[in-house]
Structures are given as structure tokens and as C-alpha cells.
Amino acid sequence: QVLNTVLGGYFGSRLMANIREDKGYTYGIGSGMSSLKQSGAIFIATEVGADVCRAALTEIEKEVNLLKTDLISDDELSLVRNYMLGSLLGSLENVMSHADKFKNIYFSGLGYDYFEYYTETIKTITSQRLKELANQYLDYDNFYKVVAGKY
């Protein structure tokens, strides 16, 4: 989750900074994770014009590969940590949101200490570990790329 957030999981992410802010190819781009019981998927989604489609894909590949070669700076990791912990707290605003969190850990077969583990991981994961995870899971050459429209 931390690695995904750095890549494209919030408004200050690398994909947003590059492809929206720097290049102006899109209004929005993001990445996410879909967790299943025995597997999961990471996805990146955006809408760009046909004239910049190839360029956007090149920049996405660049950002994915940078996570595999360069360590995330302490400042960037600190921003992501604060964002993720703040988002978690913000998602616990009422009794229904607490029930939803309980439902998720219950049906996923996780222990009641899951959120303690989750917050501790966010607070302590290192840039080196994130680089290792990027190399383990982010193989751009094996990503499925789906382009709807003119390429």
C-alpha cells in the first residue's frame, strides 16, 4: 500500500506530479490495488488524448522503473506516511465506518490486530524495503496494457 501510494495512490503521487502537473497530459491519473483472498492486482488508470497516449505510457513506465532503481527520499516517504495515517483516521468517522473496517478484517480472515500491524508498517517501512518490493512486484514489461481509443 505504501509503494502504491507513492506511485499513484494520492494527489501528490509521482504519477500525478509527472503526467498531470509536469506534462499536462491529463486531469487525473492514479494507481490502486485490488486485494483478493489468494491474489491481487495493481492497476494504473488515466484518460489522455490520442496525441499523447504513447508519451503518457512512456512516462508511466519511467515512474514505475524509478521505484525499482532509486530510493524514495525521506521527505517523500514522510509525506506519504502522514497522508496514509491521516486517511486511516479520517475513515473512522462514525460507527458505520468502524463496522465496515471490522467487516473487512473478519471476511478477510485477518486478526483483530490487523490495523495495529498496518499502522506500524506504515510508520517503519524503509525506502530500501520499498525498492525491494518494487523489484519484486512492478515488472512493467509484464503489465497488461489496455488502451481504449486511438493509440
| Shape call | globular
C-alpha Rg, in Å?
17 Å
Main-sheet strand order equals 1-2
Written as H for each helix and E for each strand, in order along the chain, the element string is HHEEHHHHH
Distance between the termini: 30 Å
Tell me what portion of residues adopts beta-strand conformation.
Answer: 5-15%
Largest sheet: 2 strands, antiparallel
Instruction: Identify the quaternary structure here.
Output: single chain
Give the helix/strand class: mainly alpha
The residue ranges in which pLDDT falls below 50 over 5 or more consecutive positions are none
**Helical segment tally?**
7
Overall pLDDT level: 95
Got a strand count? Answer: 2
Percentage of residues assigned to helices:
55-70%
Structure description:
It is a single chain. This protein is mainly alpha-helical. It is 56% helix and 9% strand. It is built from seven helices and two strands; from the N terminus they run ααββααααα. The chain has helices at 2-8, 14-22, 53-69, 74-90, 95-107, 114-124, 127-137; strands spanning 29-35, 40-46. A two-stranded antiparallel ribbon has the order 1-2. Helix 2 packs antiparallel against helix 3 and helix 3 packs across helix 7 (127-137). The protein starts with a helix and ends in a 14-residue tail after the last helix. The mean pLDDT is 95.
